[in-house]
Amino acid sequence: MNYRKFRKNAKALSPVIASIILIAVTVAVSVVVAAWMGGLTLGFMGNAEQVTMSNPVFTAAAVTVTARNSGASSATIQSGAVDNGASQTPTVPVTSPVGSLTILKGSTQNIILAGSFTSGAQYQLSLITSKGTTIVYTATCP
């Protein structure tokens, strides 16, 4: 058998071209995997409630806080707690049903929690959503 003749006529892939093809395939696969994992992450994290409290206004018998929903979906406030964790049903505006309050995404809502407050004392205010998320805010009564 004449091996020299076989090698002369055989065409091989250039090492540079082979490297470029391998890099292109690797990048394509990594982009597909990254897109797939990003989709999974958004699916799990996209429905997370993101409610914050601010601007507490104290009176002798209640505190009004502003709740802001910056999440991707509406959040329903089921109950609230003042200081020692004793459950308080939030008092809501007349347009909302008593006992629960839905805050649309991107909006704010004032929530009134009943209680007895002393000037200069620090209170821990909590809101509990229907999904079980607890939002905590610490404020001092003026």
Short description:
With 142 residues, this protein is α+β, with helices and mostly antiparallel strands.
In the CATH hierarchy, what is the superfamily of the largest domain? PCu(A)C copper chaperone
Low-confidence stretches: none
Q: What order do the SSEs take from the amino end to the carboxyl end, as H and E? A: HHEEEEEEEE
Helix content: 25-40%
Strand percentage: 35-45%
CATH architecture title of the largest domain: Sandwich
Q: Report the strand count.
A: 8
Notes on the protein architecture:
There is one protein chain. The protein is α+β, with helices and mostly antiparallel strands. The chain folds into 2 domains: about 5-45; about 50-140, Immunoglobulin-like (Sandwich), CATH 2.60.40. It is built from 2 helices and 8 strands, in the order ααββββββββ. The protein has helices at about 5-10, 15-45, and strands spanning about 50-60, 60-70, 75-80, 85-90, 100-105, 110-115, 120-130, 135-140. Strands 3, 4, 5, 7 and 8 form a 5-stranded antiparallel sheet that branches. A hairpin with a 4-residue loop joins β7 (about 120-130) and β8. It is rod-shaped, with a radius of gyration of 30 Å.
